[in-house]
Amino acid sequence: MIYLTLPYNTLASQEKLVIAHRGASGYLPEHTLESAVLAFAMKADFLELDVVMTRDGHLIVMHDLTLNATTNVDEIFPGRSGTNGKYLTMEFSLAEIKNLRVHERSNKRGSGPAFKGRFPYESLLFEVPTLEEMLQLVNGFKQSHGRVMGLYIEIKGAEIHRQYNLDPAKKLLAILEGYDYREASDPIWIQSFDAEVLKTMRQKHKTRLKLLQLIGENRWRLSATDFDYLKTEVGLNEVAGYADGIGPWMNHVVTGKNISGDLKLTGIVTMAHHLNLKVHLYTLRADRLPDYAETFEDLLHIFFNLVQVDGIFTDFPDRAVKYLEKTSLH
Ligand code: G3P
Ligand code: CA
User: Is the pLDDT at 52 greater than 70, yes or no?
Assistant: First the structure.
């Protein structure tokens, strides 16, 4: 563990990325075309998108493998849930999903919003976009504004898709090829918590696109990937063989403050940088601050300036862009 004392005094020289997490999701329901438009207007460098598949093989933009937490599926399709009350995306066709409306994310009990003070929970103004609609939107901006917003796409739930004979990674690469995303220099990253998905994309599908290994906690049971191993020097060395960066959870980087008030750092960023891996950290939220940061700007300062990550996923891209402009790190 490394200890670091505030106030901060270092300035990073390299460009820092602001990645709009599920769009500008602090202001509009996540993963809607509207939240992507707002992210572009806020000058985010990248737009983060999670993708899952429908029964008929379309990639839709959605974080969960189920429709429960962000749509009105229970009103539109009563009786179509599994015995556990869950509506799996891969049990619905795209045409059916297009009948749904998207709302602000529910809390785990489904009794209200996950984040208080965000867009009104009762609002049902939005629809579920496909990946292709998002690609058309971002490409449209390129033509109409002459500015590029990169894409940062996460493949969710490879194992459950396999059970439904669906292969989101293969489909994703085929779609991206059609939109001319082919090279490492293209403005796109592909991310996954599942090491096997990334290895397959690199080694079997031979993609040259930039890949990022997300790092979670084994207790989250996201895939067979052993995150405790990946966080070690040996593990990171293995990651460097198939990916271009890591995406740690912020608790993997800063674990709090010691009794002298110094930040406790794990050292994972330094290890990753030694291996030439970029570090894009998730997820900074102005309305969910860790106890070692008093303000969101304080949090941005810690990660951009002190820890020197290369990018952050945030629900509040405008505040991160402003912070970087003010401190000339952008
Ligand atoms: O992809 C970065 C971050 O989004 C990972 O967490 O659960 O929001 O997909 P999650
Ligand atoms: Ca994600």
Answer: yes
The string of DSSP codes covering 281-327 is EEEE-TTS--TT-SSHHHHHIIIIIII--SEEEES-HHHHHHHHHHH
Nearest CA to ligand 1 atom 10: 63
Contact 68, 87 (CB under 8 A): yes
260: number of Cβ within 10 Å:
7
Q: Is the peptide bond before 270 cis (omega within 30 degrees of 0)?
A: no
Position in ligand 1 atom list of the atom nearest CA 63:
9
HEC sequence for 245-272: EEEEEHHHCEEEECCCCCEEECCHHHHH
State pTM to two decimals.
0.95
Catalytic residue list? 21, 63
Residue 214 alpha carbon to ligand 2 centre in Å: 9
- Residue 13 pLDDT greater than 60, yes or no: no
Helix axes 131-145, 168-178, angle to 10 degrees: 30
Instruction: Say how many Å lie between the CA of residue 170 and the centre of ligand 1.
Output: 21
Beta-bridged to residue 4, according to DSSP, are 263
